Amino acid sequence: xxxxxxxxxxxxxxxxxxxxxxxxxxxxxxxxxxxxxxxxxxxxxxxxxxxxxxxxxxxxxxxxxxxxxxxxxxxxxxxxxxxxxxxxxxxxxxxxxxxxxxxxxxxxxxxxxxxxxxxxxxxxxxxxxxxxxxxxxxxxxxxxxxxxxxxxxxxxxxxxxxxxxxxxxxxxxxxxxxxxxxxxxxxxxxxxxxxxxxxxxxxxxxxxxxxxxxxxxxxxxxxxxxxxxxxxxxxxxxxxxxxxxxxxxxxxxxxxxxxxxxxxxxxxxxxxxxxxxxxxxxxxxxxxxxxxxxxxxxxxxxxxxxxxxxxxxxxxxxxxxxxxxxxxxxxxxxxxxxxxxxxxxxxxxxxxxxxxxxxxxxxxxxxxxxxxxxxxxx
Length: 378
Fold this sequence. Notes:
The chain is an alpha/beta fold. It is built from twelve helices and eight strands. The strands form two sheets. A five-stranded mixed β-sheet has the order 6-5-4-7-8, with helices on both faces. The chain has a three-stranded antiparallel β-sheet with strand order 2-1-3, with no helix packed on it.
């Protein structure tokens, strides 16, 4: 039992630390995932707390993982582990069974798990956490009391600082398909012969004698037996999921939706700057003056500079007039914009469809810096 308990502590501790650090690397992305869950459970009023809650969960996971490895405060830690895994097991089962959230976000964008894979992962974790919980009174800390508090305190401070740093700048490690160095057209392409989504139509007929509703397919539905069965409803279901490219919802159109310029932007052999502001009512307005000056310098050198937003035309028009913006705005899906860069606004540099660089609004470069780094000082 001692060996099994030790192995359980190592497995659970390491997994919690990895999971917490991956999410701490991108707390904004994790907060977006939390908002999906809030929507599912009808608790949208929690959306304003999503980011601080995301940071808290990241820190809590890492601290629990460290405490599990060192054996610190095991009575409190084992109860915390058990309650947390029971909650998340219920959450992943609910998401899987009702197909509500297609990715739990357990490991951010680093490792994508289907809802059922997430549920199975939590069941396995539950088994090992139960072993730790049963043995909690026999687990002794490998540190002194002062050492316990020091290690847990330092872990809390470091992970909190790291999370806040990634919020105020960008993820240190970018696992998204829009990361620096990624070729966006390649990320959007479907390989030849890749499997496609397969759908099947099911027809539901009600037995007029018993009231029973029975499922049929197009091959066996009782269309001739009108004395026994009456049609109730028809449902088309996804029975086999095909290949989906990493980027499948990226499109750049004019604000009225009449013109698609995605190909023009991605095929441009010269530098392209994209200002990404998914919601202009929530954007960091203090950075707008800097963007205007940067855009003016780009215009002098015929460098393409545009903005992408999901805000409606009226909001865009008012915003442009308020800040005297001369560059053009285009429409892009809000989810795609949130995925592209964890900053509102953010700045992305493209060339031939490849992401050359990107900046959080706290780190927007001066034009001279861009000229020195990418135009050889010209």
